Amino acid sequence: MPRTNNTVMCIGFYSRGSMEARILAKAKRFRSRAELQEHQSKLLRRLVRYVYDRVPFYKKKFNEQGLKPDNVKSIQDLQRTKFFTVKDDLRRNYPLGMLAVPFEEVVRVHASSGTTGLPTVVAYNAKDIETWAELDARCLLVAGASSRDVVQVSYGYGLFTGGLGLHYGAELIGAKVIPASAGNTQRQLTLMRDLGTTVLCCTPSYALYLAEYARDHGFDLERDFRLRLGIFGAEPWSEGLRRQVEENLKLRAHDIYGMSELYGPGVAIECPERCGLHVWEDHFLVEVIDPKTGEPVEPGEEGELVFTTLTKEALPLIRYRSRDVSMLEVDPCSCGLIHARIMRIRGRTDDMIKVRGVAVFPSQVEEVLSRIDGLTPNYQLVVDRPGALDRLLVRVELSPRAATDVLTRLVILQRRVEEELREALGVAASVELLEPGAIPRSEGKAKRIVDLRSLR
Ligand code: DLL
Predict the structure, then answer these.
(1) Residue range(s) in the chain whose domain bears CATH number 3.40.50.12780
(2) Assessment of whether the complete model's pTM goes beyond 0.85
(3) Is the CB of 204 under 6 A from ligand 1?
(4) How far is the CA of 345 from the centre of ligand 1 (A)?
(5) 259 CA distance to ligand 1 centroid (A)?
(6) 214 membership: H or E segment, kind and range
(7) Which of 66, 111, 148, 415 is 20 to 30 A from 273 via CA?
């Protein structure tokens, strides 16, 4: 891959406005999808040769599939074989066996939390860090942020990519950045108020908690705060949760998507139309497949997202199975961007629970809960199998007002939630109404599922 010598992020050479314009112009430089696809195929051909020559894992894989790098002209040539990269490939090559550059060239690593085994380590060279910053800068600009904004980054800084990813992006557009990291909610709100934060970046569940904490601790979000934009992602969330967060924090919330294997945040963002998240297709080739067969699904059908990184240098990935469930929309968007959109992520294939054979995603439950008055989107799904059959229990917190209701009203509420859940999910669930604050809060990603079946 071509190397640039200039790996310094040189905001000083550009006026702020021209830096913003330059970043947006790059996002908008393709006039048609055909032009964009031609560009992708060119990058793909270069990538295939690059990984074949540099990554033993990929060389072996190509040879096993009987594929010669020079014969791969487009993604269809890979689709004809079952050529995928999965998370286990990264684990098996722990920590950095899939590097495509000498270790000396690496300038940063990030890693997954490794709760289910070894952490997945990802690495970046200087060019990757530059590209990543630009992707996050694009996301912020397209969502409506600018150099005039005060951006509070309340994603965790550290091995998690959320904090540093948005930090570099916000700096690149020339915004004023508060690197608050996750946690210490009292301090978050104090900084937000005193420094006049206008853009908040954190997980949607933490945004909701910030609003709740502000209300309970005497912060006046209407009078003393200047929030106007939220860049929320890293976990599935529903339209209902968006409404609540927007109402409570007095801002406009945009969904941002990414994963550490693809740099981190900055893979896709909602534009002002908010009808799906534009994937930066000049850097990622996105496909949707049937997770069972591995075959591409028809346009407009739901399936698992698969990504090929077209510009990553240190740790490029070909047809990486994300396990995220969504669908793709390639029709032009009224915002003018021609980059395809993925619809709001429904959940992960491994977060989907089967209850008596029916697939249930936490986001479906959240959608129901958030439209019923008296409930909050603080909830957990507990699945158990006391006898032969699975049992789903949805534990949800009441709003402070509903928590003081008389018992009969609460029983009516509980029945209503059970009915609406059965309707939406196609399977029965019992509902437990809880006091406000009963479900543990997370500063990062919320834990929505407790599956007790595996413990039996
Ligand atoms: O969560 C990167 C990120 C940070 C994205 C900040 C957005 C904002 P990982 O920890 O590797 O990276 O987790 C990636 O999180 O495969 C999805 O399952 C989930 N995820 C990320 N963004 C969204 C989103 C970061 N907007 C995994 N909606 C992904 C739903 C999301 N799920």
Answers:
(1) 1-349
(2) yes
(3) no
(4) 9
(5) 5
(6) helix 204-216
(7) 148
